């Protein structure tokens, strides 16, 4: 068997100096699992860039985000390899995490369910002010003032009054705005958003996406957004990493991914999306579901579900450059040149 | 789809609260004066944001809740107040699929028991062996191997569990199945599998489906007719094509505009500001006037009645004649030829076509 090929590299945007975060060859195994849950991935976020990570549940998206934040307990997981460059400093993730001072200050994270990530027994103002005090110091009054400014910024009506309210008094959309206000209170350079709009109604989702886009323009922060909604990706992303089974199988600029999808998994996900202009009929599917780590096939991890699988897929998939900045890990990319289907 | 009506609701209203021992709890009118007809064999969708009363309406339609006012007729029989054996018979004819396949299956029962349980109630004369046979048939019907009857729910993925939930709903041989967000907890690839399954079942068994969902893409794909709800009322109803292509109510238009789609910074969407008011303190007049870009003083004065605007299309808006129908809201971005050719290859391979590997041009 040939040695493991190197992971797909992020698109070269030609402005390395502006990179906020760069993760290289990250490999993580949960204790008791036979194979790594995250199996060697490279990701990069530049200033002002919105990177979307797409894939089904169980493909390692959230684990990767949690690892960048240093939130995974070392007792249950083991980093096999991986280095993280963040704001010009390099960290070897096998031995160290980002220092606590960087987290919350330079990187902030928002989660899917805003109710469970807010403390129900503190007022909104207190919670935001606490993170300001923690990271910036200063007086309580100043921190409260900052909290107020943040609520204004994220478009919460009657912000003075909201400062003194508890999370249960707010609607889902408002809570998510509070989460974003708290995350951004310390002017982070990077925002990690894990399914930030999945729990929200479509009109509120639209408001939150517009808010993230506006903030990106104003502050130049980089954003890493985890989502499984390709509509959201099409709307907001600059670049896209498609993950399957703990690997990045396709990586490129958003227009490339939608106009020139290469990996059978990317193609399957796109075909499975109901379209507003093609009602009725049968949807194409991705058969089965993501196998557990114990049943993960060797070589190309997608081959157990791939409609085009071949004996050669038992070897690790090579990295194919589909276009400048657009790479894919598949033995048969581009499909139309390497295979044919007859009825 | 025929014009044969299976379920009729007339003036349905549901109020919660108002009781209480020490202090009266506030009255909340979750559903207000809803009338609709569901035709045999069709897929009818109810859309709206959280808190609009769509789940309450579904529960009223199947008599899981008693209406405060109004009546529901199922197959010619008034079911608003049925009890006893009549209610059991009704349960056999109407079944429910729940949103969350993780909490709606008893973890201590095998799949065979879970699916067999409704048979014990609705077909008590069936012997143990016939019941096992029937369970095997049901499993096959939803695309699971019959051997899975001996397994427990935790051994299955989300999509498989939702299939088990569907098999359980089908066990009593219902005429109508109501799904409350049946696919929204699933990943897009698995969601497509379940949507296909529901489509096949409704066609093969002549089932009538009532689907509650908030994903407009799913609704457009699955349904024949759509009702849009806002704060307890139906504000627009019609065929899926009418509602999606010719939306007349400003709220429907705003919902469609909120669907995420690639858009340039120069052409931002028409965004709906604010949120739905609380159903315990609804605004006077048209409930949507607080967020409506077209509202006038008349809109806060009177509640608009639902008016026919087309063959089967009706809308509850004072100003529907003045509001232009937006163009191309549901136009999806064109896909490149290159992408389309790969989608075609994918569909052909999925459909069982022979894949020949090797260089091709």
Overall description:
The complex is a heterodimer of chains A (343) and B (361). With 343 residues, chain A is α/β, with parallel strands linked by helices. Chain A has helices spanning 61-69, 114-117, 124-136, 140-153, 159-163, 172-184, 202-219, 230-236, 254-259, 264-272, 335-338; strands at residues 19-30, 38-46, 50-54, 77-86, 89-92, 107-110, 190-194, 222-227, 239-244, 247-253, 319-323, 326-329, 339-342. Chain A has two domains: 16-106 and 189-338, Rossmann fold (3-Layer(aba) Sandwich), CATH 3.40.50.300; 114-187, no CATH class. Chain A is built from eleven helices and 13 strands. Chain A starts with 18 loop residues before the first strand and ends with a strand. With 361 residues, chain B is of the alpha/beta class. Chain B folds into two domains: 5-18 and 27-223, Rossmann fold; 250-259 and 281-331, no CATH class. In chain B, the strands form two sheets. An eight-stranded mixed sheet of chain B has the order 6-7-8-3-9-10-12-11, with helices on both faces. The two termini of chain B are 45 Å apart. The model of chain B has no long low-confidence stretch (mean pLDDT 89). The chains are: A alpha/beta (343), B alpha/beta (361). Chains A and B meet through helix 6, helix 7, helix 8, helix 9 and helix 10 of A and helix 5, helix 6, helix 7, helix 8 and helix 9 of B.
